[in-house]
Amino acid sequence: SRPVLWINTLGTGVVGMWLTGAFWQWDALALLLWLTLPFNLLIYGVNDIFDQDTDALNPRKGSLEGARIRASEVRAIWISVLLTNVPFLVWFAVTLPPAALAWIAAYAAVFVFYSAPPLRFKARPYLDSISNAAYAFPLVIVPY
User: Fold this and answer.
1) 104-113: long-range contacts at Cβ-Cβ below 8 A with a sequence spacing of 24 or more?
2) How far apart are CA 114 and CA 122, in angstroms?
3) Residue of 92, 122, 100, 112 lying closest to 42 (CA atoms)
4) Which SS3 state, helix, strand or coil, does residue 133 take?
5) 91-139 residue pLDDT tens
6) H-type helices in the chain, by residue range?
7) Counting CB atoms within 10 angstroms of each CB, which of 10, 17, 34, 79 has the fewest?
8) 120: three-class secondary structure by DSSP
9) Which residues does 43 contact at the CB level (< 8 Å), separation at least 6?
């Protein structure tokens, strides 16, 4: 889940909370927790699954900058992504307004399809850069 990069998700969530006019709100706790391990495991686990071939050749992988996974680890990564994300998504479906749910769905979809076929934004000029703007979505999700 690359904890060194959690600032990209959790940090924008905290800024989103600040934009609501309050630095802390208990009702945002579940969202902030989701923006740590679960959502980052979704982003980077999916990325590692679909980038196995190129990651094997990348000298930066196998460090804080990402994993080199084996094909035998793919199932465990998918299970981990589901087990850490589904409970939060169910909670959000029950407790959050539809506008927030739409932004959460878009947030997750952009990062899944950044790496996953058939869309694989990272392999498409311009969509690669534009999709990285999704890191700012918590600025909208938290206030909703």
Assistant:
1) 104/141, 106/134, 106/137, 107/39, 107/134, 107/137, 107/138, 107/141, 108/39, 108/42, 110/134, 110/137, 111/39, 111/42, 111/43, 111/46, 112/42, 112/46
2) 5
3) 112
4) helix
5) 999 999 999 999 999 999 999 999 999 999 999 989 988 888 898 888 8
6) 12-19, 29-34, 37-50, 52-57, 74-95, 98-115, 127-131, 138-141
7) 79
8) coil
9) 9, 111, 114
Evaluate whether 9 touches 110 at the Cβ level (below 8 Å).
no
Q: Which amino acid is at 122?
A: K
Biggest CA pair distance of the chain: 47
pTM listed for this prediction: 0.88
Return d(Cα 35, Cα 85) in angstroms, integer.
10
**Any idea how long the chain is?**
144
d(CA 73, CA 71): 5
Report helix, strand or coil for 128.
helix
At how many degrees (to 10) do helices 37-50 and 98-115 cross? 30
Q: How far apart are CA 34 and CA 32, in angstroms?
A: 5
Q: Which two tokens stand for residue 87?
A: 């409970």
